[in-house]
Amino acid sequence: MIAVANREGGYSLEQQQDLEAIAPAIMQALQSKKTEQKRARAEGTLRKNWEDLDCAQAVGNIGSWRLDVLKNELTWSDENHRIFGIPKGIPLTYETFLSTVHPDDREYVDKKWKAGLAGEPYDIEHRIIADGMIKWVREKAYLEIGSYDPLFSPVIDFQYQSYYFFHFHMTLLFPHTP
Which one, of 120, 139, 136, 133, lies nearest residue 67 by Cα? Predict the structure, then answer.
């Protein structure tokens, strides 16, 4: 590190010119260090936000996905991998997703997806088969027609909500009598 301080008797003309020559490099190095520190803080905040989102999705049984239509590349959140029972690291495409859809719902889902790509709303409930179990999910994709940005959709695994909803209403209809 270079330390510069006022000297008794001042600096010679040659020393002043040397200092003036390196001053921009010193300023650039200091600015670069500040930028690096800001970037590191932003990355830390972003990492924490992703952790919070993953936790919230796990608690709520809500996953999410993005599909790059042009590349047919599907990206899932950790919770979406859990909902669909597909391990992380497996390449995902629209066809991969469709293969998890219950065979009786597959044509319906594909038809709604194609209609969604043509501009109709994509807000559907259907069954999937994950880990040998039939699950009900709801998907609502945000399609931006004419945009080349990836499409985004939350996925809600509502089998547990349906279970608790059913049992809650059954206790209202048939309360236990002492």
Answer: 139
